[in-house]
Amino acid sequence: MCRCCLNLTDGEGLGWACRHGEQRLAVVVPISYSIGGEGLHRLIVTYKREADRSVPQAVAALAQVCERFLVAHEPCVASAAGLKGVFDRVTTVPSADPMRDLHHPLRRIVGEVCEATRGRYERLLVRSDSVAIPRVYDPARYVPTRRLAGESVLVVDDMWTSGASAQSAAGALLAAGARCVAAVVLARHLNRSWHNNDASLRALQRLGFSYERCVLCA
Q: What's the CATH number for 20-205?
């Protein structure tokens, strides 16, 4: 596995995207894998569809996943980032569409629904006018809403593919004065058909998933 994002690899160390990209996050912790076309992936795709009647149920389910995981394991993430306790502030990665970002369901989950984060949630970044190139690190795509006086920040994102958006967000937050930035992502996206992923995923599934452990404390 990639030691940064837990992508499945054929060797040790960093996966291709993390090896060729910038590393600004102190630690990245996916809650689970999102396998293309399967349960968690379908849930994340659904919760963004404003016209889908299943959106409220998808939002509630993802909020429960986020809440339950962070209550148990935010201290693990903070410790791995060199902190004690929990993070000072919690934020989300802005949507690529500035208008959609105002009402993005992830902001509602982290800033309103999850008791573990809503008291510390703040919209610390907004999209800039810079044209974002997919899968390319570019902190200029985000503008901090204020200076950060050495505060620690936990970024919550829904899906990790290349990691360029989350790493760019971290770069912008650090430039604004954050002491450290870490990320918890609801899902690390994988395709079962890629290389040996199917065999690796089947082996992992035999271990089972438990909220009692995370990739840092397992």
A: 3.40.50
Measured between alpha carbons, how far is 40 from 208 in angstroms, rounded to an integer? 15
The whole-angstrom separation of Cα 62 and Cα 70 is 12
User: What's the one-letter identity of residue 218?
Assistant: A
Contact 184, 77 (CB under 8 A): yes
Domain ranges of the chain: 20-205
- Residue with tokens 């060797």, as numbered in its chain: 11
pLDDT score of 98: 72
Write the CB contacts of 213 (distance below 8 Å, at least 6 apart in sequence): none
Distance, CA of 156 to CA of 93 (rounded, Å): 7
Q: Give the separation between CA 82 and CA 33, rounded to whole angstroms.
A: 25
pLDDT tens string 23-51: 999 999 999 999 999 999 999 999 988 77
pLDDT digits (tens, 9 = 90+) for 104-156: 999 999 999 999 999 999 999 999 988 878 889 999 999 999 999 999 999 99
Measured over all CA atoms, what is the biggest interatomic distance in the chain, rounded to whole angstroms?
Answer: 46
pTM higher than 0.85, yes or no?
yes
Query: ∠ CA 87-73-106 to the nearest 5 degrees?
Result: 70
